[in-house]
Amino acid sequence: MTARSGAGSAVQGPVGVGLIGAGNISDEYLTGLRAALDVRVLGIADLDTGRAAAQAERHGVPFSGGVTELLSRADIELVVNLTIPAVHAEVSLQALGAGKHVWTEKPLALDRAAARRVLEAARDRSLLVGNAPDTVLGEGIQTSQALLDAGRIGAPQTLLTLMQGPGPDGWHPRPQFLFEPGAGPLFDIGPYYVTTMVQLLGPVVSVQALGHRARDERVIGSGPDAGTTFPVRVDTHLSVLTTFASGVVGTSIYSFDSPQRRQLFELTGDSGALRVPVSGFDGPTELLDGEDRTHSWTTEPARGRPRSRGAGVVDLARAIRTGDPVRCGGELAYHVLDVLVSIEESASAGGTPVAVTSTAGRPRPVPPEWDPRHATVTPEPSQTPEREADR
């Protein structure tokens, strides 16, 4: 089901990138991508062309306009889909139909059938699909993976993850879409945790879940619409049991209903435990040696070059040129979506276990020297001075 380009592209030089969606998260992507020499951000499109124009001016991007205009540009090879979850599949299919490779914000789609259509369209056109989150490429999680693979906690046995907070309605100026199908704590934050689970522990084979909704309406807490009430259409608290193909078992909470803010990804092995920095690209790993009778945690600093939002886009762009596998690729994204949908199905059925029928391999590790800012494909000579100046 993974789309591959095979031997790579005969074209050399930086990959032309266009963004569809000029919302809040586009700032983070644009900051990261403008510092990367293997890509060139050439355009931004949005249904609100004024918002696209403002982002283009702010970040020094030469083109802004509508989606059709951006997709018609021959110099844009890769589209970064930053639209709301409800239209992720629709926009990705439109971009693939225009012959563009696609990186999508999470989730890949809202359901399995739509996700399969995206991956099949990419495969039929020999195009690549990548998907957020790319935090698993960060030096924090990669350091945790190196410690795990080196046997520092022995064979992994159990997992405990917690993501608790009051929800984004208090700070986000337009939070409504985060309480619609395809979002909520499960689909908005869950991909970070589930992708990290697969990165470290391999594929999931079954889930069992219960859901809860503390209230049916919420109030926008900031911005021009502060005080406006909107409906809640998804569960805002889920408790999940997860079984991995390896035999590891996990317990997770995903909640927008808690005044207590807590993030934890704790993996216990037969001779120790790891606390993984799941919430960002960097951050230390905490290590507990099971033989240490003081039961004290030690800190292992993150090792590797700094990485940020857009690292996965750069990895995808390099794969376009080289033919290497995409680390955050379609197979992984589909499996993560399958896990999330299975959790939702289990919660809707009152906790009935649901088998996860898809699978995905653990993405290959990122070497410590891997740097999304560096040029690794043959640069265009006329662009090198300009891009060095950007950095």
UniProtKB/TrEMBL annotation:
Q: Where is this region: Disordered?
A: 281-310, 347-391
Q: Where is the Gfo/Idh/MocA-like oxidoreductase N-terminal domain?
A: 16-129
User: In this protein, which residues make up the domain named GFO/IDH/MocA-like oxidoreductase?
Assistant: 142-275
Name the chain's protein.
Answer: Oxidoreductase
Keywords attached to this Swiss-Prot or TrEMBL record, sorted alphabetically, are: NAD, Oxidoreductase
Entry annotated with the keyword Cytoplasm:
no
Organism lineage: Bacteria, Bacillati, Actinomycetota, Actinomycetes, Micrococcales
**Coiled-coil regions listed:** none
- Asked if Transcription is a keyword of the record, the answer is no
